Amino acid sequence: MNTPHPNLTTIVSGNRKLTIEEVLAVAEGRAFVTLPSDPAFTARINAGSRYLEHLLADGGTIYGVTTGYGDSCTVGVPPELVAELPLHLTRYHGCGLGEHLSQEATLAVLVTRLNSLTQGYSGVRYVLLERLVDLINQRILPRIPAEGSVGASGDLTPLSYVAATLVGERNVLFGGAIRPAAEVLKERGIAPITLAPKEGLAIMNGTAVMTGLACLAFARADYLSRLASRITALASIAMRGNAGHFDPRLFAVKPHAGQIECADWIWNDLGGATNDDGARLQDRYSIRCAPHVIGVARDALSWVRRDVENELNSANDNPIIDGEEEWVLHGGHFYGGHIAFAMDALKTAVANLADLMDRQLALLVDVRYNHGLPQNLSGSVGPRAPINHGFKAVQIGASAWTAEALKLTMPASVFSRSTECHNQDKVSMGTIAARDCLRVLELTEQVAAAVVLAAVQGVTLRGRTDPLALTAPVAGFCQDVGKRVPFLDEDRALENELRATVAAIRQRTWDLYANA
């Protein structure tokens, strides 16, 4: 197998549990994948395809191998056509629409599908796993349309683009250019594969797209929950808030783990002491109750990780084949219900972060509530002050992004549709839920970018009138943001600076509570 990045981390897929972080490492270009060198692993994989060959030789009936697909399972396929059936499966599913998955998302999907097949219950040959490794490590990326999956029988249509690439059909993204798959495979010395009887179904009939996207969503939500905690500390400092709202003694009596974690982060950011120098008895909810909002997301992430990593490390196609024990069972492991529910829940928790930060921004810009800061956080003073409006329009934008995020929290998983002549009459909608979650994350990152800039501006303005003893993490954060986005005194267009800040958030630029 070709490994074009020999200095990167090697992640083994097979004989072990893969983590979300390992999927991200490959997706973000920090690692490549390899298969176990253990001969027993190779033997176990090939045992499934050999057992399948024996069943076919004995005239056995196997769904999707000697029968048609879906409702056509009652249609027998003559022995002389069995070999052609997988290619037809890939071709008639080539009807995806919408935007194509990003390079990062495509790599996450490929790693996820590879890891499912390495479980050894899909009846594929070892060479198929090798070809998937080649696609990942050489960054030969199928052009996968995002739309067209109902999440059962798995991500059939989008994954057909993976299968098509392996056989040398359709287009790929390679070296920054969109090119025919056959041309790129030939250039890289990779022979197109001829799919064995179960292999088209094994590649396509699973949950790899929704699960790969869920891995990306998890990481972004985790970082946003940390950033929302840092933003809360900044907003509290800027508005001379009551640090006692985050006292560990307070949270010991309502011991939700995520809530305690978040309160502790903010408490330490504020210096770990209650301020008695005229602080208000009670701040408004978007400050005082921030750990209660962010804590829900933190606690949700714990079970979201559990369910995503269970799916990531599962055999989730149909039928399931054990070549060593010699059995075949037909079931519904392609159903993405756990991912669908996890993504529906996570997008709601994330949208609540957007709403929280939007409310904090509304307080920061309003002289009725920001306790002595200038209107709209404008840094302009003197005769030019009347024509400068600071963060006025940024607050409007954040409100719009928040509204759109909140609108998208309608759960996708309850909108099951009956498809395939009522064979697939209850489906998960897991891929739509994952895509919705990523869109909510994108909008919330935009809100966070706006509030990062505003909160740092607010802390800077407060420091002009009040002596501030910032903790090292908070001071370092403000200094770094200040280097990227200068203090706003005279009005200027902030679009490019907001976009750069969104990019910094997406790249998890700031080290937030890394040792927590």
What does this structure look like?
- With 516 residues, the protein is mainly alpha-helical.
- The protein folds into 2 domains: 9-206, Fumarase C, Chain B, domain 1 (Orthogonal Bundle), CATH 1.10.275; 214-506, Fumarase C, Chain A, domain 2, CATH 1.20.200.
- The chain has 18 helices and 9 strands.
- The strands form 4 sheets. It has a 3-stranded antiparallel sheet. A two-stranded parallel ribbon has the order 1-2. It has a two-stranded antiparallel ribbon with strand order 3-5.
- A hairpin with a 2-residue loop joins β6 (171-174) and β7 (177-180).
- α9 (208-238) packs antiparallel against α13 and α11 (257-269) packs across α13.
- The longest helix is centred in the C-terminal third of the chain and has 36 residues, at 430-465.
- It is elongated and about 90 Å long.
